User: Fold this.
Amino acid sequence: MKKGMSLLLVMVMLLSVCTGALAVNEDVEGELVIYTSMYPEIVDMMDAAIKEEFPNLKPGIDGSFFFQSGSGKLITKIYGEMGDKRDQPLGCDMFLVAEPSFSLELKEYGYLHQFEVENADTLLRFPYDEEGYWYPVRVCNMVLAYNPEMVDEWAAKGITIPKSFHDFAYDPALKGYISMGDPMTSGTAYAAVVSLLGKYGEEYLDKLGENKVMRESGSTAIAKLQSGECAAIMILEESILKYLHDEEAKGNPVTNLEVIYPEDGVVLIPSTVMIVAEEYSKNVNTEAAEAVAQWLLSPAGQEMVLKGYMHSTLAEMTEVPYKSVDTNELIQKDLGVDWEKAYRERESINNLWTLKVTQ
Amino acid sequence: MATVTIRHVTKCFGENTVLKDFDAVFGDGEFITLLGPSGCGKTTMLRMIAGFEKPSSGELYIDEQLVSGGKTFVPPEKRGVGMVFQSYAVWPHMNVFENVAYPLRIQKKSKEQIREAVERVLEIVHLTPYAERLPNQMSGGQQQRVALARALVAEPKLLLLDEPLSNLDAKLRETMRFEIKEIQKRTGITVVYVTHDQTEAMAMSDRIFVINRGAVQQEGTPQEIYNRPSNPFVADFLGKVDFFRGEAGNGRIVFPKMGGQSLPWNGTLTGKVLAAIRPENFCFSAEGGLKGQLETQYYLGDVNDCRVRIGETRVRVITGGYLYGEMKTGQEVALQAREMMVFPDDGTLEEMLTIQT
Amino acid sequence: MKRTKIGLALCFLAGLAMVLAGIQGQKELAESGFGSENGYQAIYALSADVAEAWGSLETELAELSGAENTAADSAAEALLQEAWKGSKENLTEILNGAGNQKKSTTWKLLYLQETLNGPKVPSAVKKSISGMSAENGKAFRQALIRSMGDESLGLPAEAEAAAGGLTGPERREMLAQLIVTSQSAGNAEYTEHVNQLKKSVRGKELQRTAFRMIAGGEINWIRQIIIGNSRTVILIGVLLMLDTLVLALLMRAERNWRMDFKWIMILGIVDFLLVFQVLPVIYMVIRAFWPEGEFSLTTVERLFSYPLNWEALKNTLIASFATMILGTLIAFPLAWLVGRTNLYGKKFFRALFVLTYMVPPYVGAMAWLRLMNPNVGTINQWLRVIFHLSDTPGPLNVYTVPGMIWVLTTFYYPYAFITISRAMEKMDPSLEEASRISGATPVKTIFTVTLPMMTPSLIAGALLVFISAASCYGIPSIIGTPGNVNTVTTRIVEYVALGQQGLNDATGLAIFLMVVALGILFLSDVVLAKKQYITVSGKSVQPAIVDLRGWRTPLTILVSLFAGIMVLLPFATILTTSFKIDIGKSMLAEGNFTTANWTSIFSRGETISCLKNSLIFAAVAATVGLIIACVMSYLLQRTRIRGRTIPNFLITLGSGTPSVVIALGLIMTMRGNFGVNIYNTAYILIIAYLIKYLMMGMRTVVSAMSQIHVSLEECSQVSGASWLRTMFRITGPLIFPSIAAGWFLIFIPSFYELSMTTLLYSSTTKTIGYQLYEYWTFTSQPMSCAMAFGILLIVIGLNFVLNRLTKGEFSI
Assistant:
């Protein structure tokens, strides 16, 4: 009897704790707007998940929490909202966009809100801001890609598919047959350029220029691989994985697109979560923002990230996105990006790029 | 300088037959007028001669050369005719000299020849001082003369005019009428003139073709058409006329609506007839004739336009202005008819006279 | 006359008053330190709310004993003192009234304090509180108030969970919070107003100021309007003053003091343009040339110290001129053949030739990319086979300036084609007939008569092509960038991504484009002014058909060939790609054909709602644009008012500005800084489209109107018709085909517009253009091709429907 009672008590306590935990998320209220550059399907999924997790939190922008756009455009919009004196409030409360150099910039402008993530040092396996202004929440991965079905055709023309970033730029046979994103407009491409500059120096850009690399968006590049216009492209792993997944979901197995994990390393680009400082935020709801950020960094939130074909930033997470490879392995091979440099020397790096590659 | 032969030309626009079996020959140097109300097909005929329309059937010859018919078609630029359009069609981006010189430039005449010809023709139309002017700085009448000059400058064998005077004021119209006629007499050019104004037609033409609803009603000299119209339409279209219904027989025509009075007539028709009498062919007589009352007199200076009531009919009488003082409104008068045109009455008069546009 | 003058004077004074009031309001706003004007609106709203809350609280307090009241009052005041410690606002002063005055102020302040800064009430408790009946609620609150004054008193059950374990000031706070929660339970409006206050009054200090103002009821509705909307008030005041001044001057010049509806329309439109077109543009100009408040050319100097920018400039000018010339050269003969001769299949060709601009530029660019890329382009492959060339890249390379010119031409020549066609159909044929009868062949007639007569519309069409090509982004970014061909527009976008400094640079470059656009416009107006070509007279005319005779078949073949290359080839590419799985293989290759792309797009609900949005926005933009165009062209052509070309310039300026810059300008100026806040609404999208595409419609209408003789309208006026009636019954129908063409020229680009939409849209205003872009970048090209082709079919369908409805009058 006593045992039963204590068991019941324990269960009740557990229950109340659980409901208490649930009740915590029920306490999150007000409105929230998040600007993000993630894929629309992932955004829809996350939107639904957040609505479920925080039932009293109101979506701040026409029934959704998110405003979604390409990262370049989103940054433009944010700049526009800041105004030329950088003192105007923004239209959002949180960002899930771009990479740490942008976070550094916003931090300097005083637009970010400090918040604490418990045990960040053991929780995360990517760098985060010590002062608590930004944390990495998802990881993009810059790699190469090729068309396995056309290997022979390329070989007949005397072209071998490059296996490293080095060969991508340095192999003269590839001249006119390579393509990558435009670092002037794509944050991730820019990060990759900074990383490769760090590894190979300015010569890398010279070689890219000599090889007449074409600059374009991801999906155009994929199409060029398939049509045989390009032999190899530099592209985000997630674009490839998404394509593979979409096609296979439609019942079309893909044999003409494959990722190359470059031998000289990959470029891992963590994308951050930032909360807008109270004075500039739209809904002045930092509590909710913090709660959502916390959720994003929890296994439940990271599930979504994986579904978005990106790697998780949690140290504990062993799962990988669709058809990808082990994240920790990738971290081993990471070429790394000097984010401070990427931020501070943006203009000179851009000039270098235009000088060596686009002229 | 050219003849125009039109052999059984018919023109249809879709379901609409605009010209029925036009068959005629225009002689060299003749001034021919195609006269009729709007929509009768006269402009279409002119355009076919010019080459802007093709006949649906039949043939057209200019100066014995087949220009339209069967498999043959000579385009307008090769027909060597001059044309004056109703809207003048003077090019606004060229000055008067350039406008007139245009046909000669096409023919690649030398500068000297062009200058000579243009000046000559500008002289004819009295526009010499305006050679450098732009059309939008000129009045309608002046533009019309530019168009005329342009049409004449290349000394074409045939001149076509499409209602050229309809946009001018009355005085100018009269002046231009004589000018055009003068030019034609002097140059001896064959002219085909289209108009709906019968005064113009009468004043200028050697022959008139009266057209209504696509069919030629009558063809002849102005005198013939005026005095011996072949049907009520022609009688009505040219000049003024009144129609009276009557019964013909026994050398007289009885007018029921005139209280049964009658006039002598020795024609061959009997039965129901239409008597068409022109107002100027009535005269007041001392005795005999149709008796009635003088209802109104309109004094117009040179004529006295009267209305006489005879029975149920009102008759229009035009007589000399000098009679105005001599007659009193309301007095009893008698009318004699100098000339009377008689047509059979098949009941279609009203319909025939309705202008179909 | 006197009445009008008095009326004008009054309006002017009213405007002045508004401006002064607004300025005063701004001053007060600045002094108050509130972040935005909304604060005043919130304060006003909250004053009412709080007064109401106090009303019921007062009765509840009255039911307690005197001692309980005193205890509660002291507790409340103590709480306030604690919360207002160190504040600049002196609480004692605020509470210095006696008796009931002090009581009500205390409790009102406490009410607000707790609402905004009180401790969190667990949601379970909240739920149970809001479920209470009025009776229970009252009892609940009274118990809480008693307990606030005397800690020893017990708590009602619901409060226990929240405040049970607390003591002292913490307990009192929680109790106060519970009282407030209970009072405002279920009052959504109150929550709304509070949120508004939170957003516009940031910082604790300001909050207390706001509380004081609310508790003291310091804002009445007039002040609320003036201060709360001070910028809008100033804006309206300025406009009013401007309007009355201008109107007075105009009337004086025309010596006609009768108030006519047309004045109101014209001024209304000018105002509209001023606010939505001039303002953003001027703002951007000031940014570029007065970056730090002082005029400086450093931005421009720096920009043009980079050779890359010079190159971009050069490329843009070359490409635009070439496109303009090529496009007009193509459009004129085509328009003539299709409109004036007996070419076989005229109607078919006519419809076909305007198709190319009905798809977004980047879709067309992608097709040409597929066809003419040097490595595996379809046309290149054919050419290699036909001419036995070796397998090396070429011979055609689309990633070059000529390649870009080609694609730009195929895309933009329809603008010239449409403008010229319309005018040609309305031309008096006797002008050409006179030339024919004078001995000139049809060809000679074209050169000596038709061409010179069509000069106004030729120039109008050419201008459209030039400006569109110069400010186009989609095609240079897809065709030019891979080949390192930079243009001003691509450079602008690159600068924008660079950060704040980059925005200034971007604006500087954009200004260059605007200047070019203006220059061209100016030149063309100067040229055109000399030639007044009235070619539509009172007679209705049938255009004369030129018989091509022996040339009929060869020309038809030539035109078909042309149509095939320019139109059918790219569209076929798009269509076949939409059915492919693997882009690299042929559609007919085994297993490569699929309709999945089509089905998946058109079965999504999102597509339907995007479609609806696009149709509505584009239609509204086009209709409003046409009205503006008609009024403006009337102003230009039928009045002699000085400065009537100014709106014209403004409109052209807008069209010459790259979309990105327009969007940025709108973002920066339309968020309330200048009295207008339409950010994140559908209106800002519509206005963006208007700014960018208004010129298309306007030029078409203007050149049509210029060919109509004024006598036609004068005749109507003499018959007694008012200005409006004349426009509707006479002018309108005469230029109806051009109006229709102009409508479509605005509708279609707005329909699939992309660059501005991505920056200005919000979730409910997603358009089909954006949807397409999403597919393009995030999904797959076959899918975006399916959508593009679908859009094309929709537009064609729309054209067909409208054509039928208006019996052939209203169509492209």
User: Anything to note?
Assistant: The mean pLDDT of chain B is 88. The interface with chain C takes residues 50-52, 73, 75-83, 85-87, 89-93, 102-103, 106-107, 136, 147, 150-151, 154, 160 of chain B (CB under 8 Å).
